[in-house]
Write a structure and sequence with these properties.
Two copies of one chain form a homodimer. Chain A is built from 16 helices and 19 strands. Chain A has 462 residues and is an alpha/beta fold. Chain A has two domains: 237 residues, nicotinate phosphoribosyltransferase; 168 residues, TIM Barrel, CATH 3.20.20. The first copy, chain A, is elongated. At the A-B interface, helix 1, helix 3, helix 5, helix 6 and helix 7 of A face helix 1, helix 3, helix 5, helix 6 and helix 7 of B.
Chain lengths: 462, 462
């Protein structure tokens, strides 16, 4: 089964109807996050590369037609209009790694209406999930204040594909490594990890376990010291490292208890043993809040290993993302239902210094100090260039984080940066709202008349 | 790349060391959830089928050896001992769908130590993620009090594979359908869904959109009525359904606003239009808390569509799951580090009426009123029977939910059911703890002496 069937059923029913009605003119859909979750002051654009892979390979094949027919309980002949449909549209998008704000389009697709509709679910899934995790990872890097952060999340992400993405998105945010072997290989990341508690328990005691580990692994090693009693575990580790002459580049790992206090005691034990170069790795339920506390307290921790809470973005595991029709056949459209108003028209985001962004229309001139964020990344269903590279995304993110206001970078109760609407976008929203409301009152819109009204900008407007 | 590289690096380093030390005797690892997240009073065993698929196909091939060598920065020759390793062990597990409690093993693997270690990450990932989502789905079914619940989560799950699982786990919990086409086809579920707001907006007005939809889709239809103004949308839908004679089995969908109040008004409009048979579907940010409120208030909603918050288990997106060594080469082991004490030995869960479970040792006799939950599902690396069927899991879950105490079924502030430890397990834990603590004091364990001590049961013991 191709990815074309990885979709919500309504995309198929709508596409069929559009085709029957000959509604195949160009439609533009805009993908954005309406409101940020509590505790988030910015997001990080991510998911574009996998969305583009999906679009480039999109094809409704014979197996998909069978699937659609069976799930709709209709004869396969009814589905024939969808057969061999491919994606032939244009994609304009924010390259991965850029900081993005509420209401800013991450991506806009312009394609014949049935195509643009059919790809909604998959594209929204990729952008929404990855953008959420990337923002969480970026917060960890901010909280660590320069100390290395590594990813240990694979065991509790929502499936192993999500674990792969967590490793990749951590690297985008600047993580120094990942425990995820497959992701490390495929994305050229540094793989990290040495031993679990089970390893210690399988031996008669800690000294035997550490010694055996060093025997089979040349170079620096990291000994896990909290299986039984942390302080005595550190002492045993120090003795083994010294006796074997393996201290150079090696570390101990704390995985439970009061990590800050234990790190202080472990540091003292290591220093007294003449091993000031042996580093301390901390893990176990860490997230950006814990990292912030530990770094603020000056805990002598050299490496933070974050896992579960980052891999699932535990405090904000989803985003209020949307994929909304903003223009069809040259006509700007918008939705007015309560709390979900959308702004009409094809858009652009102009990044001004300090991320004081302006959301405008795609064809309006940029403000003097604004740089357009959305780039044309696909045309006629084909990528306009090679796939984006992870190191480039990492550089974009580092540069954007550096210009974010401190209040947005803060870990606790951060203040979201808010984009404003340009004059032309505000005017267009007013005109479209007027047209819809006028129509609702049962009258035909007088030509030109709608241009004079000036209703409020959409509620989601920051 | 095979699934063998979908693992944490430390599984590989540990396995290599075990092989070098000739530590290939049988080890038993137990997978369980230490403590339940706030707001959960029970879990639902899930993920076993995909874990068994992984174990049955586990094979360290040439590509995996290359991956291990590259990520460890060691010559491929060093990895040779792992080449062609397969899983040849035994798996005892709770069949999918059973209610499980904190501390109860979901699964126990007994295999040569390197094998049992290497499979940890993948197995833990599957059980942990799926068990979390299944419990969330079960809570929705309880809250809906008999009204149908359907799954709309695919667009915001953590990747599309997680979306597939959400659809499957919803069905396990008793959901009536899913929007997920691929999952519906593969798992023989009812696919549901008709139109999005974009569909309405692509037409000149709602009446044109509804009429066109009915034209291309015979049979019952569901019209989305909240694109502009909900009450007038309902009126338009009623008129189109009546004019076209398509009311039979059809519905309207509310997706925003105060769903309870809007449903009351929509019901009135439909009834006044002589359409008492047209049903009301509600969606938009729903979870078990909203369903509980709506059903308690008697909202005239006929079908609940839940999505994002269920697909990511938003209030509890991960579980405090563990995969712990409990026995090696016939020697029971346990971990004593703070807050993460584990109980030693191969175990069994005896289900007593009302889920008043007893966790005991695998070889002890069941209590008179207790039925063992863990079954042998794999032996010598081969499944002992055909894959578990989803309808069977659904039946198990329905039966177990029916015997859960009301206090555990309650949606707000439920009271967890707590399993107790059997006498033999309590005794074993005391003996092993004594052995470890005695060893830590530097003395050899006097034969037989350890059996007389009786320390507290492990902290996680419910």
């Amino acid at each position: 089964m191709s990815d074309a069937a990885t979709t919500d059923l309504y995309e198929v029913t709508m596409a069929l109807s559009y085709l029957r009605e000959r509604m195949t003119q160009p439609a533009t859909f805009s993908c954005f996050v309406r409101d940020l979750p509590p505790g988030r002051a910015f997001l990080v654009a991510a998911g574009l590369e996998s969305a583009l892979d999906f679009l480039a390979g999109f094809h409704v094949g014979a197996a998909d037609i069978d699937t659609f027919a069976e799930t709709l309980r209709r004869p396969a002949a009814d589905l024939a209009p969808l057969r061999d449909l491919r994606f032939t549209g244009e994609v304009r998008a924010v390259p991965e790694g850029h900081v993005v704000l509420a209401g800013e389009p991450l991506l806009e697709i312009t394609a014949p209406l049935p195509q643009a509709q059919l790809v909604e679910t998959f594209v929204l899934n990729q952008l929404s999930h990855q953008t959420a995790i990337a923002a969480k990872c970026a917060r960890c890097v901010i909280a660590a204040r320069g100390r290395p952060v590594v990813d240990f999340s694979l065991r509790r992400t929502h499936g192993t594909a999500a674990g792969y993405q967590a490793a990749r998105l951590g690297a985008m945010a600047g993580f120094a490594g990942t425990s995820n072997v497959a992701a490390a290989r495929a994305e050229h990341l540094t793989a990290v990890g040495t031993m679990a508690h089970s390893y210690i328990e399988a031996f008669e005691d800690e000294a035997a376990a550490f010694t055996a580990f060093a025997r089979s692994h040349p170079g620096p090693v990291t000994f896990l010291v909290d299986t039984y009693d942390t302080e005595s575990g550190v002492a045993v580790a120090a003795r083994v490292l010294r006796d074997l002459g393996r201290a150079d580049g090696s570390a101990i790992r704390l995985d439970s208890g009061d990590l800050g206090a234990l790190a202080v005691r472990a540091r003292a034990v290591l220093d007294e043993a003449g091993l000031p170069g042996v580093r301390i790795v901390a893990s176990g339920g860490l997230d950006e809040f814990a990292l912030d506390d530990l770094t603020a307290a000056g805990a002598p921790i050299d490496v933070y290993a974050v896992g579960t809470r980052i891999g699932v973005s535990a405090d904000a595991p989803y985003l209020d993302s949307a994929y909304k029709l903003v223009e069809y056949d040259g006509r700007p459209v918008m939705k007015l239902s309560s709390a979900k108003v959308t702004a009409p028209g094809r858009k652009q985001v102009f990044r001004r210094p300090g991320c004081a962004d302006v959301i405008g229309l795609a064809d309006e001139p940029p403000p003097a100090d604004g740089v357009p964020l959305l780039e044309t990344v696909m045309r006629d269903g084909v990528r306009t260039g090679p796939p984006g590279r992870l190191p480039d995304a990492a550089r974009r993110l580092a540069a954007d984080l550096a210009q974010l206001p401190e209040t947005a970078r803060s870990i606790r109760s951060p203040t979201p940066v808010r984009a404003s609407f340009s004059g032309p976008l505000t005017d267009l929203a007013a005109r479209v709202r007027h047209r819809i409301e006028h129509r609702a009152r049962g009258a035909a819109t007088p030509p030109g008349d709608s241009r004079r009204s000036a209703p409020q900008p959409p509620r989601h407007t920051p």
